[in-house]
Amino acid sequence: MESDSLQLSYAGHYLFVDNSMRVMHRHRGAELVFFRAGFCRTRFDSGEEFECQAAHVLVTPPGLAHLQYDNTPDCETWYLVLEESPVFHPGDFSLRLIALGEDAIAAEWFQQVFELCENHEQQTASALLGLLWRRLLEIESRAEERRNFHPALLKAVNLMSRRYSEDLSVSGLAECCSVSVSLLNMLFNRQFKVGPRRYLLSLRMREARRLLLDNRYRIGEVAEQVGFQSANYFARAFKAYHGVTPEAYRNGPPEFADRITFIE
């Protein structure tokens, strides 16, 4: 199903109350449940069962009965139920978990769709739902690609994605991944056409671009959050990477964004 054809039926927010047994229930349309915190189990009348935890999204197809149980006291979810669609394709919303990892945007969008729905802005909520679903599919696709990575490369990429603001060295990464520096360099160049240093820089610059669009952050604060101890060094590195200063990018991102060499 095309993401722009999705229609939201309703949205909800769940906070733990108790663990009294709930009855099986089903929805006419598919359901997306984002687990913001805690843990629970979800059982389906198909016989399948999932253990769901923070940063997971559970995709439930239309008409499949299910219930949640064994919720921890900190369990919190946002759930979005879609309208049934005459153009629905069964493969679009097959039963599965999608791990968001560190993707804060998708997490925010779940809450924003709920808030739009609460404010009776159904058309805007459905539009954001379409973007959210597209993003979830992209996250899922990237995760599938990474499953084919060499174990050391996968560990290095995940570590860098979480700790890009820290002082990471190639030798330190290699040691954490139990491989030699030369092998780690080879794995990065084979997969990304750049070495680990350049890959780390691309992660820092991606976050820097995002922070620069928020005027609440001074340039020095942006530098610190993306792993540069000196604002001047950050400014030089940013200009070398993008061809413009951080100030120029902040003032005119549409003019300069296409100069970016982006590595996913």
UniProtKB/TrEMBL annotation:
- GO molecular function per UniProt: DNA-binding transcription factor activity; sequence-specific DNA binding
- Check the record and name the Gene3D superfamilies matching this protein: Homeodomain-like (1.10.10.60), Jelly Rolls (2.60.120.10)
Name of the molecule in the record? Helix-turn-helix transcriptional regulator
Residues in domain HTH araC/xylS-type? 154-252
Q: Which Pfam families match?
A: HTH_18 (PF12833)
Q: Where is the signal peptide?
A: none
Enumerate the UniProt keywords alphabetically. DNA-binding, Transcription, Transcription regulation
